[in-house]
Design brief:
The structure is a single chain. The chain is an all-alpha fold. The chain has one domain. It has 10 helices and 2 strands. Strands 1-2 form a two-stranded antiparallel sheet. α1 packs across α9. The termini are far apart. The model has no long low-confidence stretch (mean pLDDT about 95).
């Protein structure tokens, strides 16, 4: 039963990675979806890349690090770090492993910490992907009118100011 549950979780996170990649390409095709003139201007100069390996694997450890709290809510402690390690084991140590390690930076870092992330050679790819992730998650968690989406969108707009 445990193995079947793990397989189900793996399938869920792979589908999420595919959704992130779909939104990455969708946002690239229509930058007006950002809803922020400054970010839309930046996005016009962004060069799309084949980031499927990163998108499909950015949450690859979630089925293995998943824990439930007392109320039954799921948590995935250190999943970016663990996903990066798992990616290296399965695919080798390349730039995608490092991108996976920093996948949550634009969602979780604040203030001056963001300047470090913006200094990474692939920061624009991480930032564009962060937007793709919130759009992909909106499909699962209440849509683009949900408070969750609006809070995450506002956080990404604020993160852009540290570029």
């Amino acid at each position: 039963m445990e193995a079947l549950m793990t397989i189900g979780l793996i399938k869920k996170w792979l589908q999420h990675g595919q959704s992130v990649n779909y939104w990455y390409l969708t946002l690239y095709a229509d930058q007006t979806m950002f809803g922020n003139a400054e970010i839309e201007e930046w996005a016009k100069s962004y060069k799309v890349k084949d980031l499927r390996a990163y998108h499909f694997n950015h949450d690859c450890s979630k089925p293995y690090v998943r824990i439930l709290d007392e109320s039954g809510k799921e948590h995935y402690p250190n999943h970016s770090f663990e996903s990066s390690k798992r990616y290296i084991i399965e695919h080798g140590d390349d730039v995608f492993a490092d991108m996976i390690l920093h996948d949550m930076d634009f969602h979780t870092k604040r203030g001056e910490e963001l300047k470090e992330t913006w200094g990474l050679s692939y920061a624009d790819d991480l930032y564009f992907t962060a937007w793709s992730e919130i759009f992909a998650n909106a499909e699962l968690f209440g849509g683009r009118e949900s408070d969750s989406f609006k809070i995450k969108r506002k956080r990404l707009i604020k993160a852009f100011k540290y570029k």
